TrEMBL record:
Positions with biased composition (Low complexity): 495-529, 555-568
InterPro entries: ATP-dep_Glu-Cys_Ligase-2, CP_ATPgrasp_2
Circularly permuted ATP-grasp type domain mapped to chain residues: 76-451
Organism the protein comes from: Deinococcus grandis
Residue numbers spanned by region Disordered: 459-536, 555-610
UniProt-recorded name of the protein: Circularly permuted ATP-grasp type 2 domain-containing protein
Signal peptide as annotated in the record: none
Superkingdom assignment: Bacteria
PANTHER family registered for this protein in UniProt: BLR5612 PROTEIN, SLL1039 PROTEIN
UniProt xrefs under Pfam families: CP_ATPgrasp_2 (PF14403)
Length: 610
């Protein structure tokens, strides 16, 4: 692949000398074999599939329209096993400290009494909820789902950019990206040792059920409705978990319990996975003008008769000013040294730091402490003098609401740009998802967001960003090379492949003739029939043919698995069987369209070549 990594920023895939890093070598070989034209064609299939399945997000106040397809770049971001182990340890440490902090400040607040964190900073946070002070959620768990944003600086060090604890979004795109990639680029995964991510929905459901105040409780996903920016995700997760997707008008409180309206009558609700901010959850406790929540919900929550994930009040821990003290929380609660460092942060509420912020605004990135999605930011080096002055007026007016950080040169990654038909460097970050319960579950990977606007450092989808599939490998690379048998059968064990090859060469009589003799005679036909076209045996096989053959074999196995699943379902209908657990099927609507379209187009192309 033609690509210039440059030397100013850390490049995820290539070294400064232009050589592919060990864990990327298999993908580089695959891309070289596939070719740009075929890669572009499949990229178009991805866009079509995302549109057909409604994989969208919403941008508010955009003249081009509210809802649009989530941009996706198919060059995967790859993390080797040892690197992921470091990230996993750091995230586990961080979420434990954050949960301990929330438990503390909503009870004795010892960390504030000991002066580790200024009490003023916590109690003036817009997300601190006095209404639930003294309320301990089931199991003492506040942070059921955490999305922590990581970046890599110019030296390749992972840094925590921010924590998202209220209702972190994006995991549905992580799952949809992987699903799409395995259908459109199946051969890319062959022999790579990529760890799976599709268990996230079942792990989330297990976590939610564990927080239920009753056995076999009822779980629902509470959404603001179809006009919310993350509505696709709300619907997707509810479908994958096999639970009801509800709006506030579908729920009501009666007799000190929460109920759901159904066509069969009311049904008690025990766990609410809410995707609504605290302000809108209960008009009797928070904003009186909210039509999105459930009147009386907070009172039932206080009584311990309904669990809410994430717990009410968690937003104080992802306040961007409180974020600066997370390393201190780790030392205070865990007596450990932070594994993952923060980005250096200046706080507007501190008079000395505010003075520095105002004097060096042209070199800093300013953020509003309560905003998300890339809103409320000022990137000093990219802003005009007038933009800086206008923004600083807001900072002077309410300094508590702002922080500033030095500009960090986010790492870059090869990204395909259809308009130029080539691979260019684009800045990326990483949002892993942590499920926190009795155990900590971290999906191996996360959502890699990519700044698709050339030269931009802002990766948020609302600001023109897209995403990539994120691979976590079970090794550090390079991947084991695949032989012909492995390409055809997906056997990544060299020993097994060798054994299979030997068994095929042994005598398997057919009309008194050994298989080796039959192959020798059939070589004169110059073709081997493999089910998806012909591959020459007598001469050299091109790298592109091998890549296509790998894709064909992988698709053939996927199709066989699909057919087996359908057959098993038909068999199961012949006699009554116990109901399965409340989990959605692994295939979502329209899943087979990737494979069917790819096979149709590829077979047509093979026909033209012949």
């Amino acid at each position: 692949m033609r690509y210039e990594p440059g030397s100013r920023f850390y490049d995820e895939m290539f070294t400064a000398l232009g050589a592919a890093r060990a864990h990327y070598q298999g993908v580089e070989t695959y891309l070289d074999a596939l070719g740009v034209d075929e890669f572009r064609r499949r990229h178009q299939l991805l866009d079509l599939a995302f549109r057909n399945q409604g994989i969208t997000f919403t941008v508010y106040g955009d003249a081009q329209g509210t809802e649009r397809t989530f941009p996706f770049d198919p060059v995967p971001r790859i993390i080797p096993a040892s690197e992921w182990s470091h990230i996993e340890s750091g995230l586990t440490q961080r979420v434990r400290a954050l949960n301990a902090f929330l438990t503390d400040i909503y009870s004795g607040a010892q960390i504030l009494g000991d002066g580790v964190i200024p009490a003023e900073l916590v109690y003036t946070s817009a997300h601190f909820r006095r209404e639930v002070h003294g309320v301990l959620p089931p199991g003492g768990i506040f942070t059921h789902v955490v999305g922590t944003d990581l970046i890599r600086n110019e030296q390749g060090e992972y840094l925590v950019l921010e924590d998202n604890l209220r209702s972190p979004s994006g995991v549905s795109y992580l799952l949809a990206n992987r699903q799409a990639m395995t259908r459109v680029y199946p051969g890319m995964f062959e022999g790579q040792g990529v760890r799976p991510v599709q268990h996230y929905a079942s792990a989330l459901l297990k976590l939610l059920l564990a927080s239920s105040p009753r056995e076999n409780g009822t779980v629902v996903v509470l959404t603001p409705g179809m006009y919310n920016s993350a509505y696709f995700e709300h619907a997707y997760l509810a479908q994958q978990m096999g639970v009801e997707l509800v709006e506030g008008r579908d729920l009501f409180v009666d007799g000190g319990r929460v109920w759901m309206r159904t066509t069969g009558g009311r049904r008690q609700v025990d766990v609410i996975y809410r995707r609504i901010d605290d302000d809108f959850l209960d008009p009797l406790a928070f904003r009186r003008d909210s039509a999105l929540g459930v009147a009386g919900l907070v009172d039932v929550y206080r009584q311990g008769r309904v669990a809410i994930a994430n717990a009410i009040g968690t937003g104080v821990a992802d306040d961007k000013a409180v974020y600066a003290y997370v390393p201190d929380m780790i030392r205070y609660y865990l007596n450990e040294t932070p594994i993952l460092n923060n980005v250096p942060t200046y706080l507007g509420w501190n008079a000395e730091q505010l003075e520095f912020m105002l004097a060096n605004a042209q070199d800093l990135v300013f953020k509003s402490v309560g905003e998300a999605g890339g809103y409320g930011m000022l990137i000093g080096p990219a802003a005009t003098r007038d933009e800086i002055q206008t923004y600083l007026e807001k900072v002077r007016r309410d300094p508590r609401d702002f922080i500033a950080q030095p500009v960090v040169g986010l790492s870059r990654h090869p990204t395909f740009y259809p308009d130029s038909g080539g691979f260019e460097a684009a800045h990326v970050d990483l949002r892993p998802y942590v499920l926190f319960g009795e155990d900590v579950t971290i999906v191996p990977g996360g959502l890699t967001r990519v700044a698709l606007r050339r030269g931009s450092l802002v990766v948020n989808s609302s600001q023109g960003g897209g995403s990539k599939d994120t691979w976590v490998l079970d090794h550090d690379g390079p991947a084991a090379p695949l032989g012909m048998t492995q390409l055809l059968h997906g056997d990544t064990s060299p020993g097994q492949a060798q054994g299979q090859s030997q068994s095929q060469s042994q005598s398997q009589s057919g009309g008194g003739q050994s298989q080796t003799q039959s192959q020798s005679q059939s070589q004169s036909q110059s073709q081997w029939q493999g089910g998806f076209g012909a591959v020459p045996l007598g001469g050299e096989v091109s790298a592109q043919s091998l890549a296509q053959l790998a894709d064909h074999a992988a698709m053939h196995r996927a199709q066989a698995a699909d057919e087996a699943q359908v057959a098993a379902y038909g068999e199961s209908q012949r006699a009554p069987v116990p109901p399965p657990p409340a989990l959605a099927p692994s295939d979502s609507p329209g899943l087979h369209s990737f494979q069917q379209q790819l096979e149709k187009d590829q077979l047509a192309a093979d026909g033209e070549e012949r």
